[in-house]
Each structure stands twice: as structure tokens, then as C-alpha cells.
Design brief:
2 copies of one chain form a homodimer. Chain A is built from 12 helices and 5 strands. In chain A, helix 2 packs across helix 6. The longest helix of chain A is centred in the middle third of the chain and has 24 residues. The first copy, chain A, is globular, with a radius of gyration of 20 Å. At the A-B interface, helix 1, helix 2, strand 1, helix 5 and helix 6 of A face helix 1, helix 2, strand 1, helix 5 and helix 6 of B.
Amino acid sequence: MPIPQYFLDRRTVRRFSDRAVDMSMITEMLGAAAQAPNTGNMQLYSAVVTVSPETIKALAPAHFNQPASVGCAAMVTFCADFNRFEHWCRVSDAAPGYDNFQAFIWAVIDATIFAQQFCTIAEQSGLGCCYLGTTTYNAPQIAGILDLPNRVVPVVTIALGWPDGEAPKCDRLPVDSIVHIEKYKDYSDDDIRDIYSYKESLPENKNFVSENGKETLAQVFTDVRYKKSDNEYFSKLYRDFIGEQGF
Amino acid sequence: MPIPQYFLDRRTVRRFSDRAVDMSMITEMLGAAAQAPNTGNMQLYSAVVTVSPETIKALAPAHFNQPASVGCAAMVTFCADFNRFEHWCRVSDAAPGYDNFQAFIWAVIDATIFAQQFCTIAEQSGLGCCYLGTTTYNAPQIAGILDLPNRVVPVVTIALGWPDGEAPKCDRLPVDSIVHIEKYKDYSDDDIRDIYSYKESLPENKNFVSENGKETLAQVFTDVRYKKSDNEYFSKLYRDFIGEQGF
């Protein structure tokens, strides 16, 4: 059976039309997405759906006002959630032991699988989606706006809406560079140059390098987009917040 | 547009026939899955595909020999991977700053989205899949068997094969208990009892309680399946390993 064309052609949408997305449609898609696998059928996640323009406007700065966050019709914030499960334990004379790193990672994995299944369903329904990776940066701010209680940590956000125009298709590394047969085969310098040569050759990436006054595309990542000092600052912020939330 | 029936009907498969799964089919599905979203198009993941019966046999104990790990035709171990990206930085005169918690979490999210897209594609191709959540338990052992280098950490494993018989469909919590409209609405004790009442009423779950000599279903989770002492032991093991791998 051939792989459905959708999977090969899908693209991230960052520009949305003014058309609203019904809350009932989002809820129905989330119900279907919850059929995706999860850890021990504990469903260690919650989805907070925001369609009110005021709350979207309040959340956008936490996502650095990136265009998809400002212009979307809805945001779904997927959270690692042990609040519900532990509440069940407490009303069931059971003593939970989930204030630790394993529990947090299970819930991160559960929330992410749930989010990705939702993304696939939404895209196949004609909606455009954009993950906001900034969710792990400003998690305390997001938690404040969404009233997240103890034991709940935001992990990823999907901004969605009806697409405005056709979104560009992104390049990907050659499949044999991300797949290892039987065991991990480490890369030589020449392997690495080969793997990244197509990406480096793309006109938009060459523009990226010159616009930022850099010599190589990798420097745009290390010096501009994902800088060590930012990464360290937001690592401490997220790690401290996870601790405050009881993991 | 109605939600495709596949998403509503999907189920986890733990029993597989003897029929092999072609490596070329797995690689093609992984190539399609890599079109899924990822952080900043850095593709911070690798998939290690194991089809040799010897290596599957070596990996199964790391997954506590659960039936899906012993009886599968293939295992795909999805790893958080900064090794490839940082190697590219080094050959590009760029100084990486990714030895921190944010970087690790981005890579966990990337690896999980990639895994879930692969799971959906494989299931739609007629294969059966089972996530092995034990990957975060015995990560050092798995890394040893698969020759994972520094900066690479296993996150989830999917055991797959052609289904043997029909797998049962799992219950899920009511959708309005996992979705919050606009803001998080915390649960009352009565809400919690309602939400979990269907799960508690299922004959297989009632058997679970009596077989384990427990009083409530939640106690099966806290006292048998996901015990505090185990969670704490494997939290330290995983956290230490992540540190050793340079995050």
C-alpha cells in the first residue's frame, strides 16, 4: 500500500485567513487525537483551547509575537498533566509517586504524541497548523495566563487556522542521514558536509546567512536563532518551573 | 470534512505474525514521517531500526521482555540527537550551545513527533505498532547495544510487525475531561469520580484489581505498575545518563 500523499506533501502554515475555527470542531479533533497511544493508558496530558481574541493576544507575547501566534484563529496548549491522575489516586486511597523526572518525561511524551496526532487530523481536515516551540521558553507566563495548577506544565502549543495562500514546503535532510540500520553509525566530517550541502545550497538559506552577516548557515543557528546564552537562560527558567510544579 | 475513520478506530498491537517487515518499507515510512514538524528545522533526532533477530533479542530485556518486544518483527528506537547537528556546527566554524535542558527537551519533542508520525503511517499501511515506554527506564543499556554516541539519548521505541489477530480497543477518558476551554478548569472530587467511573467499571480493570489483591484501580497503578520506588530509581538512572550524554 503506498504512503498517503498527505504525509509526503504536508507543510507548516504560518499565515491564516480571518475565518474562525469552531470550538466544537477542535474538541472533536482532540477526542479523535486522544485515541493515539499514551503511557500505560494514564493519559498524562491536557489540552487548553484558546479561541478568544483577548486570550490569544495575551498569549502571543509569551511566544515572542511570532506571526503564527499573532495571526492564528486558535491556540491549543498541550500540557504534561499529573494533576488529574493524582487527584484520582487521592480519591481512591492510592499514594501517588510521580513527583519525579520519569513521570515528567512520560507526560511530556504523552502530551507530544497527543499534539502530533491532533496536528495530523487538523491538517487532514484542511486546517493549517504551526507548532510554537516557544512554549518551553515562557512556560511560567503561559501557565499564569491559562490558570494551570500545580502538576501541570505546558510542553507544546499548536497555532491553527484556515490557511491564507499556499505555504512553502520545507527541506529535510536525506533519509539515510537520520536512519541508522541495526546500530548507530557515526558520521565523518565528509558525511556531515554531504548531508547538509543541499540545505546550505538553498537560496533562502544563503539569504539568511548574508542578511545576518554570517559566514555559514550553522552560525545563523548558533549565533542568532538558538544562542547559548538564551538556551541557558531558558533552561534554568523551565527547569525551575518544572520543580515548582512539583516534578 | 469528517475525521477519517482510522483515527477513531486505531488500536495498539502487541501480538505479531511471523511475517517479516522489509527494511526498505520501514525506511520509506521514516522518510515520510520526517516531513512532520520539528524544532527550527534542525531535525534533532535519529531512528535506529533493528530487524535482526539477534539484536531484537538483545534489546528485549531492556524492555523487561514485554511480549511486544519479544515477538515483534522490528524495533525502531527514536533518539534525541544533537550529535549530527553539533558535528555540522563544528565543520562550519559555529560554536554550539546545546549542552543544556532546553536543547534536550526540544530533541525529546522532535523525536516524539517523528515517532508518532511514523506510527500513524505504519498503522495506515496495515502494520501493528506498540510503543515501549521502557525506553526511558533502561536507556543506558539500550544505548550500549545500539552504539549510541555522546549527545544521543533514546526516548521512545516502537515495536512493529504484521498483526496476529485483532487487537482490543482501549478505553479513553471522556473528551471534556482532557480538554479545557479558554483556561484550565480544575476538577472537584466528584468530577474526578465521574471521569474515571467508566474505566473503573470495565471487567478487565475489575479483574486487574482483584488479581493484584488491591481495593481500587488507582492502587494497581501506584502499588504495582508505576511504583514510587521504581520511578525514583529510574529517574536517577535516566537523569544521570542524560548528563553523561552531554546535556
